[in-house]
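TEACHING EXERCISE
Course module: macromolecular assemblies
Task: Read the component lines below, then compare them to the predicted structure of the full complex.
Student: A.B.
Group: 4
Components provided:
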Amino acid sequence: MSSTAPPSDGLDHVDERLLRTTPLKKLLARPELGSVVGAIAVFAFFSIAADSFLRPASLGTVLYAASTIGIMAVPVALLMIGGEFDLSAGVLVTSSALVSSMFSYQMTANVWVGVGVSLLVTLAIGVFNGFMLTRTKLPSFIITLGTFLMLTGLNLGLTKLISGTVSTKTIADMEGFPSARKLFASQVTVGGVELKVTILWWLGLVALATWILLRTRFGNWIFAVGGGADAARAVGVPVYRTKIGLYMGVAFCAWISGQHLLFSFDVVQSGEGVGNELIYIIAAVIGGCLITGGYGSAIGSAVGALIFGMTSKGIVYAEWNPDWFKFFLGAMLLLATLLNAWIRKRVEATK
Amino acid sequence: MTTSTKTESVPLVELDDVSKYYGNIRALEGVSLEVRSGEITCVLGDNGAGKSTLIKIVAGLHRHDAGTFRIEGEEVTLANPRDALDRGIATVYQDLAVVPLMPVWRNFFLGSEPTKGSGPFKRLDVDLMRTTTREALLRMGIDLRDVDQPIGTLSGGERQCVAIARAVHFGAKVLVLDEPTAALGVKQSGVVLKYVAAARDEGLGVVLITHNPHHAYLVGDRFVLLKRGVMAGSHTKDSVTLDELTRQMAGGTELEDLRHELERPSAT
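Instructor-supplied answer key:
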């Protein structure tokens, strides 16, 4: 944020009351620091505990696992900075995939038509969340819990009604499938390592979200509506539109994730996605997002997702029982949050 | 504002017999006040007197139910705070003036951020924002250590001053201040009042809401007293003394009664 030095036009004299801040101290003030320390610790731990962890192929797998979570952790982090939750984010991914798949299949249309329809439907659900929140002024926890349950039911109910089973029919032989698969579920080989295209989506989204947060008016408003909605409204920030926009961001990324799900497996299980919403929130919190809003970063959410990827795959490479994953996750969440709080206190004290 | 004589005769803001009801509760009834350029109008009243309701009407957060509200002679009903801002009325609230976790410069431009570039590369003009913030604060006599620090790390008085400087910078014609000295110590109150006077000297009309007649009398030109939602008095500075203002504000006879109530019973 403060990497570029402003031009020296006499106004930027260094105030004698300011102690000189070292680059290290500036680094300490970043919200994602706690998660970076955590990520290094996890990386070091599994490098020692699992022999195969450091192989290029393993790292590709780890990055893929991180990217599938990271794509959703980015908008969820932005939403949390804006002071709200979205518990429907996990099943929304499944809904998006189901709409895309079933529309194409039932209409025997080019799969791209289904992809487009899915985008519209998913965005509409995001708008619904945001609109209900700003209209009713109920906590987002309640509103999106309602959407979560309704979507879970709809996913199963409509899929059974239309397809007769709990999963959709394969659309692998339909028109447009190869090109859609290329965009959402292909892989590229870089230096002998197979990398899934979702990693590119993920990095792109993180870069985009960081740009929006730190360098656009909308980003300024996101921090403001999360840090003090009344104060923001009083100076003319469109609080409602900002929040609805954030929910649309979650929906857009759910659409990307959903299409990836569909085009990598050809079929979609309608019961999937339940519980993932918490994983996205945990990734954002580990990445330094304040649960009360107004503070956090998109890069932090990416590091949070990376910790997830490393832990879930590291346990497999270490040949442990995967049941331990959840335990590690909980411990990581607690440690990262404590570390974040501790660092923030120290930084504010040195100011 | 065509001629100077016209600005003399037309107040920047004029409330005439304004009332506001919340359901069957009478929050404000028959209140009149005027604000002129380069003058400070003080609104005095105890808790629950209707000061907040009055400020919310002027700031565009609430609409008045009866009476007329004129801005530079034109009758208006404000739709929202943005509307009030566009008409030159800036409000500084006691507790929600700023977003504490955001840096000073982001707070300073919140809601009116300057951008550069176009299309997808339209971005905040961060350097301009930083230097302008520092300049605007210096012009008001505020020498801040670091515009990058979260505004929550400033003292209450400093935060009020930044909010006042912001209003002046964005060309507000009328500045509404909600209890700017309520939570402050003696020295800090003095500093804030100094900036209020500085804003007045820049030609702004100021509405100062307070329950402290001493602070009001120091800077005020006109005084409106509110009591239980109605006007209990309206004075100009030359028609009232501080003692008179204090007595009216404290409720005169009510204070006498209170003194009797609080007297030690040892006399009996």
